[in-house]
Request: fold
Amino acid sequence: MQFIDLKAQQALIRPELDRRIAAVLDHGQYILGPEIDEMERRLAEYVGAAHCVSVSSGTDALSIALMALGIEAGDEVITTPFSFIATAETVALLGARPVFVDVDPRTYNLDPARIEAAIGPRTRAILPVGLYGQCADMEAIGAVAAAHGLPVVEDAAQSFGATYRGRRSCALSAIGCTSFFPAKPLGCYGDGGACFTDDPALAARMREIRNHGQDRRYHHPILGLNGRMDTLQAAVILAKLPIFDAEVAARERIGARYSVLLDGANCVTPWIAPGSTSVYAQYTLQVGDREALIKALHEKGIPTAVHYPVTLDRQPALARWQPGAIALPVAHRLADRVVSLPMHPYLDEATIEAVAAAVIEATAGMADSRGPASA
Reply:
């Protein structure tokens, strides 16, 4: 059983994939070739943003967005402790301090009610994450940000394709950033990412930053980085775009099916906020004894993953940016309890049922897993 099955997807799109890659090999424009322009245009239209700036990875998307906003040493950026390290790493690498705020116990995303207390004189931005495929509460976060004149950067590495109150992820804030890492809902065959914005000045600045701060050949008004997405990866994304809506629908259907089958089981299934959809980048449970569940599933040939076992405030690399131990009870509890099941658009009903049955069996004798994450 595959945790994520990219081979099934590749078999479906192979003729278009081969055609797209052959076109790049024929014209030989491997950096910033015509496929980049086409992909950026089509992705901007899909998201509903005025501008898409493709970049070399989701991590570089965050770095470029923060650089475009002028984040620098001594600044503070409010973000979640329950995410992949890139969310905070990009802040720290600019010399700024990631300020961690606890997460909502139902969505696992940044809790808007806790942001106000964390805002200080050095706060320069807010960086929420659409964890596991569902957007954070972007309107509530945006309202707090607007009251303090702060920009919001959406880390949508896992939520690309999801919607929030009728709008798509990446079009919900000053800048939306996503990743095209192969395992993401829309992935290429290497590293890649993109930044989205409605602000033409920000878009122009991000295009300069991704190309060494260059506004024209060999003229560099600002410092940037080598953050360009290569043309072959754009060709892969273009080959995948025609089936992406169907894959998003399949992810929603499979996620909902898992939840129906696990209703009443001794585990906590994903909660999708009213007015939101999820692309289920991961289908993640909470359980009382994670190691026991992982062992039981692996004995049946069912792969699992844990996203994420160590919160960012407890990562050694970020220790010097922290004043000491932080009270983040929800995030810390989640880090001990979450486990992700196989999830991709090509899971069949028999596999879904087998996985759910194995979870039910393995968790039946555990201590109660269904208490709130904040308990």
About this structure: The chain has a mean pLDDT of 96. Residues 231-261 form the longest helix (31 residues).
